[in-house]
## 1
Amino acid sequence: MRPPDGQVYRFDPGALCLELLATGGPGPFARFETLHGPSELSAWAAESRLGPCPGLTVTEPELAAVRQLRDALFLFTADHAHGRPWDPRHLELINDAAAAPPLAARIEADGSRSWAPGATGTGLLSTVARDAVDLFTGPYASRVRECAAGDCFLLFVDTSRPGRRRWCAMERCGNRAKARTHRATKA
């Protein structure tokens, strides 16, 4: 990730649907928007755990639908992470997006995974929404967390063995918290 302060660090949220949340968000998080056009959504897909999607076509209305899902998913995930009741509107939006046909995976001759021709923004949207359904109904649903740093709102799945991950990334928020604790004990 490349936050506004310029420090580059690795952030793995643990699920495709949560990777989308780092592209912007609702309200005050709109200032972090990275999906300004269809080409940015295609670039995000290629850099995500989906991998390259050659021939992916995204229209402006599909981009708007992806942003709408992302914003609803952001709020839905934050509510879930903090044990708040889910907003039925967010749940409906996720379920409606998941109902569309997803991207179709295939195996290439070299054994790698790729995507069938004809991939669209709607298929990408459905694939992300289905990942959210799998996450929030699966074994890691209780391990969805928000970074413990007071100034970081990144959401992730704690896939660590003990299940005690607190930070979005140790290289950033974890190290800053440890440095603050160290300075406080020295003072």
Note: The mean pLDDT is 90.
## 2
Amino acid sequence: MDAGEENSMIAVPPGRVTLSDRRTQRSWPVEVAPFQLSAFPVTQSWYAQVTGQRPSDARGDRLPVEGVSWWDAVRFCDALSRREGMTPAYRLPADAEAPEWDTSADGYRLPTEAEWEHACRAGTTGPRYGPLDEVAWYRGNSGGRIHPVGGKRPNAWGLYDMLGNTWDWCWDVYDAEVYGAYRVLRGGGWADEHWSCRASVRRRSHPTFRIDDVGFRVARSAPPPRP
């Protein structure tokens, strides 16, 4: 895998996904517009190229970057946008509790959890887009460690490691009334049991926390059609 492939973006078609929350027994449908999502989680080499930093516990260029907070991920998105001459998606005022998302920007951003689940499913309706051992690194096959990206079979849309290896930060607040600023995590990780590695599973963490099985991937909004 070369750097160009490692950083490649996949066009995700529009669709509709039904999100659900086990705690509240609530479900809600969401319409998803077309967008782009990175084929792989952000790797340590890509993160270092953009930020000059290597924060991960395990070291390896093709390993997913981990030990990065939600804020780290948001700042990476803006730095990558500037590096590639795009308009940053986020405004990061120093005194704000959360960034503002400019939905008209063409730069990189975190996926929403509806986008993430829609992309993960890739048109499937079951708990996973393939047999777990074929598509994901999890407790049952990871050997207790993180693995290079792209080592398992992708889903039908060409997205790798959507389940297992590392959890992905998403843009959304998990449940503001109960958990405050906690943000959504999706996908399951290398240390998780099989039941966490499902398309519908939601986890949460504080946006300042850095965890050794949490990374992220980047998205971009699809450009509007030309008149």
Note: Helices lie at 3-6, 44-51, 70-83, 113-121, 132-135, 176-179.
## 3
Amino acid sequence: MISPKDRFLTVYGRKPVLEALDDAALEVDKVILADTVRGPNAAEIQRAAKAAGVPVQRASAHRVKVLAGNGKQDQGVLADVVAPRMRSLHAALSDGRPPSRVLLLDGITTPANVGMILRTATAAGLDGVVVPRRGVAALDPMVVKASAGVAFRAPVLRCGSAREAAEILTEAGYGIYALGASARSSVFDVELPQRAAFVLGGETNGVGAEVGELVTEWVSIPMPGEVESLNVSAAAAVLSFELVRRAKAAGTTR
């Protein structure tokens, strides 16, 4: 059975929900409205949902807060938006054509960074970005906003944790490459196997020890200038388009 978390991106708050309903390119599965939301706000959302042919369900305010999973102001409304390229990591690896190059996020907790990484990886045509459900910023409206809406169609692969993902990928024959500022090997020179996963670590602590134990090789981005490190989303961009360059040089599409 496919988990809803592997099919939908949940957006919450009046404005994000109305924007999703108004976007003809998006498929909204349902809207859930707290029974405490009444009057003009409720009417506006119900009109927009009806115009888009989307069912509206009523639930308790507590239930909406739990489903939104944000701990912030959800304004009593959320929408489940279909993410057509999002699936579980297991499903992706069971495919007849499993991804050859994936990014694995480990401990990246800033929504802006997650959103920008999704945008960059999608632009670069990468096969997948593994976004664990634990230890990484939730795929919420802040991530969607940072991705400029690309998160809805990004090739997101879900699993429980970064460690779990690294184990699954290792068992499936992937080389695990982690970005680290002090690594001697360069992302521009390292030889890669047919299948490779690249770990991007958290903003403060980098790649965690649990994932580090499974790393095949550490790689760095050469920086001749007087800067110690790049923001993780900038590092992801450098890596993603180095993979584009390699694919182009090899005459492949990825």
Note: The longest strand covers residues 28-34.
